[in-house]
Design brief:
The protein has a single domain, classed as Arc Repressor Mutant, subunit A. It has 113 residues and is mainly alpha-helical. It has 6 helices and 4 strands; from the N terminus they run H-E-H-H-E-H-E-E-H-H. The longest helix has 10 residues, at 6-15.
Amino acid sequence: MDRADFFEQVYQVVRLIPRGRVTSYGTIAAYLGTKGSSRMVGYAMNGAHTVHPPVPAHRVVNRQGLLTGKHHFESPSRMQELLEAEGIAVLNDQVQHFKKLFWDPALELDLEA
DNA sequence: GCGTTGACGAGGA
DNA sequence: GTCCTCGCCAACG
């Protein structure tokens, strides 16, 4: 990735998240090398619904497994519905078995090549 | 041009 | 263990 914008890189990683898995903003940020700019990842998701192909932003939660960004979806309950549709249990805006469903790009992709 | 906000996270008390 | 503070960088008012 030479010239890819930070936003676009975020979208790219999010699209790689397998179905039924979740990750956190900070993890994505760290993967992109901008660990400190975890906020920018969340902000980038702000335009997730404007890019193509669409970004599964519902698979991205904060490091606590909380659906902090659900209010940015079409409907506050939309995010939870999408997650449950993938087999992810969500209770009180929190992903159950978060640690187990956690998906780390640097770990799963393991691109050392 | 300046101050505030924000889909976060880590570190210190 | 919880609570508070700082950093990060872009967008918005």
